[in-house]
Amino acid sequence: MADVVEDEEKWLAAGVAGLQQNAFYMHRALDSNNLRDALKYSAQMLSELRTSKLSPHKYYALYMRAFDELRKLEMFFKEEARRGCSIIDLYELVQHAGNILPRLYLLCTVGSVYIKSKEAPAKDVLKDLVEMCRGIQHPVRGLFLRSYLAQVSRDKLPDIGSEYEGDADTVMDAVEFVLQNFTEMNKLWVRMQHQGPAREKEKREKERSELRDLVGKNLHVLGQIEGVDLEMYKDVVLPRVLEQVVNCKDELAQYYLMDCIIQVFPDEYHLQTLDVLLGACPQLQPTVDIKTVLSRLMERLSNYAASSIDALPEFLQVEAFSKLNNAIGKVIEAQVDMPVLGVITLYSSLLTFTLHVHPDRLDYADQVLGACVKKLSGKEKLEDSKATKQIVSLLSAPLEKYNDIVIALKLSNYPCIMEYLDSETNKVMATVIIQSIMKNKTRISAADKVEALFELIKGLIKDLDGTVHDEVDEDDFKEEQNSVARLIQMLYNDDVEEMFKIICTVRKHILTGGPKRLPFTIPPLVFSSLKLVRQLQGQDENPFGEEESTTPKKIFQLLNQTVETLSNVPAPELALRLYLQCAEAANDCDLEPVAYEFFTQAYILYEEEISDSRAQVTAIHLIIGTLQRMHVFGVENRDTLTHKATGYSAKLLKKPDQCRAVYVCSHLFWVDDQENIKDGERVLLCLKRALRIANAAQQMANAARGSTGSVTLFVEILNKYLYFFEKGNPQITVAAVQSLIELITTEMQSDSSTPDPAADAFLASTLRYIEFQKQKGGAIGEKYDSIKV
Fold first, then answer.
1. What is the pTM of this model?
2. 3-class SS at 657?
3. What is the pLDDT of residue 446?
4. Do 687 and 721 touch, CB atoms closer than 8 A?
5. Other CB atoms closer than 10 Å to residue 685's CB: what's the count?
6. How far apart, in Å, are the Cα atoms of 300 and each of 151, 263, 266, 356?
């Protein structure tokens, strides 16, 4: 292979050297106005192009050098014509060149000057030249010769408004010339594949691909002829070009030329000739990448529709959607072996076209999806990553167009296509749907739409095909479930009955999610339900006595069952928090039995499921905080719950935790806004008990470490004393506060206490507060005056 490349370099170098040498003599002859020598050396120079040893790439390099020299020769011929030399004689003279290839290059060069002189009709000269070029049948040499002819004649075609348009010369002649040159070039180009041994077929196809633009330039010229109106395009140009495309039966040529037709001619022409253009597609070779060709056609038409509102009636008039839909069906039937990717790509492009051109016709969009489902039916879930990516693109198109999932949910075939996605891609698509809802703040307010939506995103809600969780990245999983949680929060309807149906629908779906998902999805459902309860606050039973109406009781029953599922996960700490939230909502609705039941469930969880000491501390503080805010309980129920809470507090593992929980319990016996809950004695009991525990904690520290440790706990209890003292608790006296301050001061001065700057600062701050209250004056000032600090 390396030897061949090296040889080609040598042959190219030799060809360039010969060309330059003869060009030098040609220039000398031109300078001395010696026409005969100029023609002689130019013919010898052009003889270098007769080589068959160069690849198209190398031949092009040689051709470009010759082309530059021919431009100079053409300038000389123009000067000769200006000086009175007969162009007809010159046209005859160059035909005496010995070899046909140099003769034809010279003939094309003189022909260009001949047309410009207008001594003969342009059409006659052009016809003569295009016919003469048939003398070269070697594919590469012939292609470059005809390319040269196209190049020198393109600005001399008899077009509308052109100086060469006359009585005898019409646009039709220009079109005929370009079509004839195109036809001959295409034949030469296709014939290239049969030159040389079969083992070099791949190399030849690569070389052919490099030369495709030489053929395509003709179509470009046709597209630029002003006189080619729609009628001429429909009656002459397109049928002739398509005839060549279909008849050449060559995969490379058919694909490239179909693409050229789509790119070079105006969009409105394509629209008006859709029948003809699409009719050629099923006749192409089965191996032609027709999906890309049709996709580009639909893309161009979509852009045309988007750029011009006036064009839309045209689309309806020619029934573009129907024609494209039928054509795609025929192409898929004709190409039996078309891979799934090709089928999906075609329908994806058709859907994009439909959404751009007929955004109001959802039935068209659904028809496209239905056709795609039909082609996919009977197939397993797609394994091909490119195909699944294309399906995601297909399903994303309606979301991007309408920015509203509710419209996409009206497409009956939308969920059917998702069935063909593997579980991983199903998740990706579900995420795309949720992101669309978030981005556009779409409001989904009907239970049936929520049902349809959750069917679509089931890849995120439950395990499909028994996916093992270990394979899933933890962070990705959390992100997915958080997005589902955000979605649940967005579902809302002002109508209570409909909202309850939505909650029941969501609950039905998320309960299938398994233990790993429930901690993410149940909380938002619970809070949505509690939001509905707040709406119904104060309502107990329906005034009309309808059993089916939604009441707070009914919602609380549902919530009890829902939160209970978290206990089985197990996620006891989360379940406890949710029970307490529900209890608080029941309290606001004055439903004592319901609130008591939720507290009972929370206590059971605390006793049976929460064993970690740190979790117990958090839980007991939550319980006490929630219980303190409850006003619905009667004396008996409140006493039972309060007694339990204080009992749990005293049983915590660490003494400091015990102490803090016990002094917090004091708030359960003194609630500012509830006159019936102001039991000063029990407050004092709690605080004294906390003091005893704090003292015991110090003794244990002394026994274990030889020092009593920090006095922080005592300062915290002092703050509680001051709080209740200020609130007017008669049991908290000045003497009690004073003795506690002295106790703390003594402890801090004792030899066995450990220095603690934080505790010192805390005490100093507390004492400053006492001084501040004294200086305030009034009733508060009087109260604090008796305390000596």
1. 0.74
2. helix
3. 87
4. yes
5. 17
6. 28, 8, 10, 11
